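Teaching assistant's notes for section 4

Start the section by putting this record on the projector. Ask students to predict, before seeing the second block, whether Plastid lipid-associated protein/fibrillin conserved domain-containing protein will look compact or extended. Collect guesses on the board.
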Amino acid sequence: MAAARCVILACVGLGGASGFGVARSAVLRRAAGHGHRARARMNELVVDLGEGYGRVGADFKPMFDGSSFVVVRYTVPFDLNIEPRDGGLIVVTKTDDKLQEGDVVRATSTFSMRMESSFGLLPAAKKTKALFDVTGKEWDQVVQAFKENRKSVTNDVVLIVERKA
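Reveal the predicted structure now:
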């Protein structure tokens, strides 16, 4: 696991010295604290992607009883200490001013290609900012999603984490 941690630290620190942006986080609706994991309610979140990309909706089923979802924004470049764990979880391994050790990363902003056409012209590929649900994804896919958040294409990255009660 230590080698994997080094890989992610190298990729999210692209573009210069490390440092955190202005703290901007919000604890969102509290997940249902009753019953089994299978009976937990969905949490509907609305996340501002910033930089003219607008707001997007995201639905997450809590993984833990009584957990809450936290939306965090970092200025690029930034340092993030995470590693993959059993069950496809991506877990924060070091507390900073926004995240706590043990937080589970559920999504990150990233960039992807989207086909667009206007006025009946041939479609053209356009890079656009989107949310990437990291839950259960392969480590390489998660690393690639973080790599897309570089200074040449964005000023910030948005993460959604689930915080245990």
